[in-house]
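Practice problem 4.
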């Protein structure tokens, strides 16, 4: 399949109802997972150690770090606390807000 066909397929899929929102949720989950993985690796911890410290299973940490799950605020709080990090959640005005 040529690149233009992939581009057309992506554009058609993104035009479907709810696709942009699902993509954004996935992007956020991936970025949060990457942040947790980076903090964990800086500490030299395994996924098992983080899971033990956060009261989770190793497989749950692995799914989270890979962006496979959209976390809840309480899960983020447990991970942050286990890593000695501060969880900061904020809403910022967009560019189109006057």
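Answer key:
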């Amino acid at each position: 399949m040529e690149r233009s066909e992939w581009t057309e397929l992506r554009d058609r899929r993104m035009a479907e109802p709810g696709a942009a929102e699902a993509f954004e949720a996935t992007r956020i989950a991936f970025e949060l997972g990457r942040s947790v993985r980076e903090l964990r690796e800086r500490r030299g911890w395994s996924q098992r150690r983080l899971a033990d410290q956060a009261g989770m299973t190793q497989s749950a940490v692995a799914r989270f770090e890979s962006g496979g799950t959209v976390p809840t605020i309480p899960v983020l709080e447990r991970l942050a606390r286990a890593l000695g990090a501060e969880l900061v959640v904020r809403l910022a005005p967009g560019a189109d807000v006057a």
